[in-house]
What does this fold into?
Amino acid sequence: MRIGLRLLPLAALLLFLIFNTVEQSEVDAVGKGSKRRRIALNDLGTGLAKTITPGFQTSAELEKYLDTLDESTTRRVIEGEFEHLIYYILQSRYFTSFKPIEPALSSKELFDSLDPVDRDRLLSDGAPLDPARIPIPVSVRQRVASFKAAVDRSSPLPKGQFVRTDGDNERWRYFSTLVRTTRDTSAPRIEIEYLRTMRFLYRKEFLSRQFDPAGQADYISGLYRTRAHSTDTQIEAGFGVDTALALIGQIEEQSGRKRRFSRVLIVGPGQDLAPRTGLLDQLAPQSFQPFTLLDSLRRLGLADPRGLNVHCVDVNQRVIDHIDALRGQTGQTGTGRGIRLDLVSGLTERYGWSFSTDFKEYFLKLGVSLGTVKDPPGTNGAVSSPPQLDRNLFQDGHLVRQVEVPADVMTHLSAERLNIITERYDPSPQFDLVVVTNVFPYFEIGRELPLSIANLAAMTVAGGWLVHNELSIIGNQVFNEVGLPVRQVRTLMIASGESRPLYDGVVIHQRQ
Ligand SMILES: C[S@@+](CC[C@H](N)C(=O)[O-])C[C@H]1O[C@@H](n2cnc3c(N)ncnc32)[C@H](O)[C@@H]1O
It folds into this structure.
């Protein structure tokens, strides 16, 4: 039976979106009839049981914990969708001619305008977010009014504003549907979500500055462990993974055998729906990681010529639907239409950053092993090399490149909703490579992180690899307990800035 989505209240709609997969699906993509299932007490083993704090004494205790975690994940995913909505309303040029607002600057304008009592109230987690009490900046109210008028055509238009609801704009369709199909988004819901989002941004971008660099990193890590689940993704994440894969290739070669990967897992590929800053309206929302990973594996000669499957899991059903839709478009047999990938750096040189030579080299290789690179006219294409990187590859300071990806590439990709903390595939799919970037920071340290690492270990083949970019957790005892010790650690410079360079880390573990 088809459920009339229009009638569903917010929570029901999103629960439907999140849990509409069957409880235990057949996952051919991960082979041997592996099924997704919730973890049980006997999955924890004695070593791990000691590492988890506080530990679990009985199955009932673990079940209760997992239920609570599922609830908080659902809440964080919903809050994340509304956080993206706020970034969209503030930055999009699609539905209004009011000037875009930089979200972090909006948080500063908001907090600077408050008296000390309201400021403390808004910063306190316990107090309700009350738009009737907290004055929202006029520029924000104008954009919110334009957005509401565009969604609900019967509302009066703010003076002098245009509303564009026509056309085939995927981002607009998603957000207007989100608001139309959730009952409580009409009046104060958007304003409440604006206050929630601004509170997070103000803490992250401004309050964090009161600490020294180490204290600042700790403070921001604390915010991430409970914040809304963002699906933000940037091609920059692929740089560290590419570097890690080159190293893995070398290690494998030195050991006398070069492993070729046939079964690869990406945890949390994400989708760039409406980023915290630098929204590029003209590009459709994309998920880069499955493509950049395939590209790297092929270029580095690590893809098994007999067959390679990159399987993606994510707690956000929108991300899974996006990958499934691409597969639908290209056809199950890979004979349908190919897809166009718009590779754009998240970082822009407009704000004083200068990309490192290594990152530019990586960018110039991107997509070459995936399909046909279509650089903007006048560029030298894939053959140009730093330092002669053509300025035409830059748009608004972003590095930009288009790749026509043939339909058959999509036959190598699959996706399913799975929470890596509470679930795993069983029997083990024996993944020979697992990639997890910008996901671990969202996990609490005592239980969520160890459980996720144990699930990854259980699904990885002996000798297989885990690659992530979270330097702060390399000392965590759980990696040794579950047989995933660290093999290599690197830091990479993505860009240099006026005051400091921008680094990413890469950590490589090997399953014993
Ligand atoms: C910030 S995005 C990172 C995207 C991409 N990996 C990158 O580095 O650009 C984090 C992604 O992880 C997903 N995620 C968060 N917690 C998860 C969990 N417990 N299990 C699976 N996916 C999760 C989110 O829904 C989101 O899509």
User: Anything to note?
Assistant: The chain has a mean pLDDT of 88.
